Amino acid sequence: MLSRFMSGSIRNLEREYSCTVRLLDDTEYTCTIQRDAKGQYLFDLICHHLNLLEKDYFGIRYVDPDKQRHWLEVTKSIAKQIKSQPPFTMCLRVKFYPPEPAALKEEITRYLVFLQIKRDLYHGRLLCKTSDAAMLAAFILQAEIGDYDPGKHPEGYSSKFQFFPKHSEKLERRIADIHKTELIGQTPETSERNFLQKAQMLETYGVDPHPCKDVSGNPAFLAFTPFGFVVLQGNKRVHFLKWNEVTKLKFEGKTFHIYANQKEDKKIILTYFAPTPEACKHLWKCGVEHQAFYKLEKSSQVRTVSSSNLFFKGSRFRYSGRVAKEVMEQSAKIKREPPEIHRAGLVPSRSCPSITHGPRLSSVPRTRRRAVHISIMEGLESLRDSAHSTPVRSVSHGDCFMPRSRSQATDASDGTAVISDEAYSPSDSVLPTPVAEHSMELAVSRQINGAPCSIEEEKESEAGTPSYGEGGDFGADSRSVREGAGGDSALSEVEQVNKFVLSVLRLLLVTIGLLFVLLLLLIILTESDLDIAFLSDIRQTPEFEQFHYEYFCPLRRWFACKLRWVGGLLINK
Question: Which residues form the FERM domain (predicted)?
Fold first, then answer.
């Protein structure tokens, strides 16, 4: 009996495994689920734990053993998606940023989006000029420590917390001044709502960067936002395409293509190269999901998308879930008592470490580099010489693509928007606040390879989310970048040849298969005695009788003669 009980217990343990999900406030939710459980089950458990109804904006992210990020698909088994061995560790993150986060129905949803954007601000994914940075940080202080109290908050209290990768004493004083004088009396809910209203106006709001290279080998970041598709390169935003302009997303191997129609006579194709085929597929799936979520009117309009035009090759993927318009309509119908929110105090943590963990940066002098250093102390000064913009294959006679911000068009004399101290637009820059100089070389290799160096860094940086604020200066080692670009160019030529050969072989195999099927059908028509109505009708047609007696029968006799001749040779030997 004991042995049976032990064996049964072991089998039950083998059918279950432990999952740990790191939440947006850095707390952890651990549960035990069945081995065949799907992603939807785990996602629903977390949303129930958080008392979250507006859950369509969120998703679960995990990192595979090759350091590649993935979003957990809710329709598939968890064990089949995650290649590592249990126990599994994942993260809850905002997957689809609300177009207007301050207008969300429930306070709990706004609070979770607030935590995500605060994390984006710290990791350098959300850009802002000095005045905006001070105001955002002051909102965070007010939301999490309340009104200024001289007895509790001594001189320099704002320096104990770090809201950005690096910042200056001047900015710390400005943050404290705003917190002391302008935000008195604001409740945490009001401060968080004001924070969201301020953040949504920044043009890198919602950016989750994917490191790539353009056809010239220059580093770039691709991102999907609530408003469209953007390409960030150097200190410029080289492309912005609204969702209604994007017509198709394709990938093959490490090559990613974006097809768009800007005007009736203007069609463009953008091509970029991801670090690995897995990263390219992840980029494609993210694009397909974001386009469906923000562009479509109803989830019934969602269709299965193929990465190739040919049915016998490529990946197929279908977004499963409601679209943005449906989510907002359902949110308006929510009628319940607001759930209680347990806000975490602003204490040093993985997402907001103490400033004593790293030195402050003084202002960065203006130099000519391909990437950008931005010094918040001196108004986020940016360096002018950036990487080349991505060549575009155009099939129209229209003017070159001119990216436009939500508020105004860029200067007509240049196809890209360059950052300047006088007119700084966050979406025009890849790099926000700077990092320490000694980490630049390591950061360059991370950004080009698109993967962090350790599992711990994956956990501490959004489960492997590349932060283009952490990347430092792409021009810090321009020779290595150029050498890498040359090697990638030679490698891409070989890959293109291999892809062409594989495509030809696939086409040949499909053609042979079709001919074989036609031959089988011909033999059935001519040689079989199957009494089927449509076969009898075909046999009785004059054309078929002529073909049978004038072509097929002589050919059959010729084959039979050859076979007898070959058989005779074999017997004689």
Answer: 17-298
For residue 244 the two structure tokens come to 């209604």
Query: 116: which 2 tokens?
Result: 């995500």
Q: Which amino acid is at 119?
A: R
Provide the CA 511 distance to its chain's centre, in angstroms. Answer: 37
Q: Which residues pair with 490 in a beta bridge?
A: none
Residue 378 near residue 53 (C-beta atoms within 8 A): no
Residue by residue, pLDDT tens for the chain (573 residues) are 555 555 554 455 467 899 999 999 999 999 999 988 999 999 999 999 999 999 999 999 999 988 999 999 999 999 889 888 888 999 999 999 999 999 999 999 999 999 999 999 998 888 788 889 999 999 999 998 999 998 888 888 888 888 888 778 899 999 999 999 999 999 999 999 999 999 999 888 999 999 999 999 999 999 999 999 999 887 677 889 999 999 999 998 899 999 999 877 788 999 999 999 999 999 999 999 999 999 999 989 988 888 776 555 668 888 989 999 999 999 999 999 988 888 865 544 334 433 223 333 333 333 333 333 333 333 323 322 333 333 333 333 333 323 333 433 333 333 454 322 222 233 333 333 222 333 333 333 333 333 333 333 334 444 444 444 433 333 333 333 344 444 444 545 676 777 788 888 888 898 898 888 887 777 777 777 667 776 777 777 887 778 778 888 888 888 889 888 888 888 886
Q: Give the Cα-Cα-Cα angle 508, 513, 517 (nearest 5 degrees).
A: 150
DSSP label at residue 28 = E
CA distances from 189 to 44, 139, 146, 286, 528 (A): 25, 10, 11, 31, 80
Question: Whats the size of the chain, residue-wise?
Answer: 573
Name the pTM for this structure: 0.65
Largest distance between two CA atoms of the chain: 113
372 in Cβ contact with 386 (< 8 Å): yes
Q: Do 231 and 270 touch, CB atoms closer than 8 A?
A: yes
Round to whole Å and give the CA distance between 156 and 154: 6
- The answer to whether 62 and 90 have CB atoms below 8 angstroms apart is yes
Q: Are 401 and 437 in contact (CB under 8 A)?
A: no
**Phi, psi (deg, nearest 5) at residue 320:** -120, 115
State residue 559 phi and psi, 5-degree precision.
-65, -40
Determine phi and psi for 142, rounding to 5 degrees: -65, -40
- 490 vs 304: CA distance, rounded Å: 34
Strand partners, 240: 230
CB 83 within 8 A of CB 67: no
Contact status, residue 251 vs residue 307, Cβ threshold 8 Å: yes
Task: Give every CB contact of residue 507 below 8 A, 6+ residues apart in sequence.
Answer: none
